[in-house]
């Protein structure tokens, strides 16, 4: 154990850019949020935040997806710092139960519709993929844009009447229109929030910029063998090496009316507390999942957050200001991603420009 590295548990850690290659295009709204120029759609449509997880992809760099943070000793992988003293950085409960952050955070911007897909729940992940984590995830819509006249939508959940037999037939025939028509199509706007539990079929449409908080894996089962833009997908990325039949087993074949689906998966943020200079809302919490948490802080002044014994991650979606801890003051600005270790007992945020801060938490 390197005692010299433990000093970094006492200060906020800022991540450098961590864009990740995917099978779809996008990313211009990430550039806009980061105030980067030019704003470009390409094959790096996701920003992975405080990630200790590597991305899955053929012929990609082996450390793709791993976050690096700024320190006085240069750039360091967050994973290495955590490994040096898990309890100090993560908190005792998370360190003992998971041995890692237990969560993965992404900013995702889609220029094209993503392929129709599903992620494993914990049971499937353990039995089939030998993983202690599945990939239950959440979406919090931050911005939208029309592309080729199409409004921003998401697809999720099977409609009434869809069976495994029907779904397999559509898959075998690669009837993409039939598969899309089997799912509920939902127009989205900024502020919309959805839980996507393991086993629920889904696809993100074009023009969606959202924060995705999820279990820390990159397991995705896809039923389209060619992306909407014409990229052929490898067998590994279709079924993760388990074969097509076991891939189809990953789907849960419950079906719902649109009203039932919205009631089951759409989440309405609730206010925790507010004043003239702040509003603190919870979005995803233990009433929805024990896999992660997300809240938002609208700030035009000062607000303090005490430690709850664990770490959290601050994503500055808008604004500028400072955060104070351990007698020191550190600046933040729009686009910053900041890791707050469990060792930091209290943080006071002060905005100099009205701010919206997204606060991401590990499993409860």
Distance between the termini: 27 Å
Number of helices: 10
* Beta-strand content estimate: 35-45%
Which class do the helix and strand fractions yield? alpha+beta
Q: What gross morphology would you assign? A: globular
Q: Kindly state the mean pLDDT as a whole number?
A: 96
In total, the number of strands is 24
The low-confidence runs, each spanning 5 or more residues with pLDDT under 50, are: none
Give a structural overview.
This protein has 364 residues and is an alpha+beta fold. Helices cover 18% and strands 35% of the residues. The strands form 5 sheets. Strands 1, 17, 18, 19, 20, 21, 22, 23 and 24 form a 9-stranded antiparallel β-sheet that branches. A hairpin with a 2-residue loop joins β4 (68-71) and β5 (74-77). It is globular, with a radius of gyration of 20 Å. The two termini are 27 Å apart.
Question: Can you give keywords for this protein?
Answer:
seven-stranded antiparallel sheet; 364 residues; 35% strand; 18% helix; 10 helices; globular; nine-stranded antiparallel sheet
């Amino acid at each position: 154990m390197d005692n010299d590295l433990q000093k970094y548990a006492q200060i906020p850690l800022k991540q450098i850019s961590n864009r990740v290659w995917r099978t779809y295009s996008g990313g211009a709204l990430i550039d806009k949020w980061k105030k980067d120029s030019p704003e470009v759609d390409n094959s790096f449509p996701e920003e992975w935040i405080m990630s200790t997880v590597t991305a899955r992809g053929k012929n990609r760099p082996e450390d793709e997806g791993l976050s690096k943070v700024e320190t006085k000793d240069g750039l360091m992988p967050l994973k290495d710092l955590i490994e040096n003293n898990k309890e100090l950085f993560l908190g005792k409960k998370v360190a003992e139960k998971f041995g890692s952050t237990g969560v993965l955070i992404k900013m995702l911007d889609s220029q094209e519709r993503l392929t129709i897909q599903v992620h494993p729940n914990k049971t499937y992940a353990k039995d089939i993929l030998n993983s202690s984590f599945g990939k239950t995830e959440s979406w919090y819509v931050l911005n939208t844009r029309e592309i080729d006249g199409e409004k921003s939508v998401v697809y999720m959940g099977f409609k009434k009447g869809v069976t495994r037999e029907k779904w397999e037939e559509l898959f075998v025939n690669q009837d993409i229109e039939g598969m899309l028509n089997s799912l509920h199509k939902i127009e989205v706007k900024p502020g919309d929030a959805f839980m996507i539990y393991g086993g629920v079929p889904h696809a993100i449409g074009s023009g969606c910029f959202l924060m995705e908080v999820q279990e820390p894996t990159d397991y995705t089962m896809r039923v389209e063998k060619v992306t909407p833009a014409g990229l052929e997908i490898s067998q590994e990325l279709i079924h993760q090496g388990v074969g097509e039949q076991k891939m189809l087993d990953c789907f849960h074949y419950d079906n719902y009316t649109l009203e039932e689906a919205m009631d089951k998966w759409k989440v309405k943020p609730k206010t925790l507390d507010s004043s003239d200079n702040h509003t603190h809302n919870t979005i995803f919490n233990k009433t929805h999942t024990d896999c992660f948490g997300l809240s938002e802080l609208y700030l035009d002044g000062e607000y303090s957050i005490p430690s709850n014994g664990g770490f959290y991650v601050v994503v500055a979606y808008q604004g500028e200001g400072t955060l104070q801890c351990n007698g020191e003051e550190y600046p933040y600005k729009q686009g910053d991603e900041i890791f707050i270790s469990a060792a930091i007992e209290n943080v006071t945020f002060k905005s100099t420009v009205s701010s919206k801060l997204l606060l991401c938490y590990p499993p409860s």
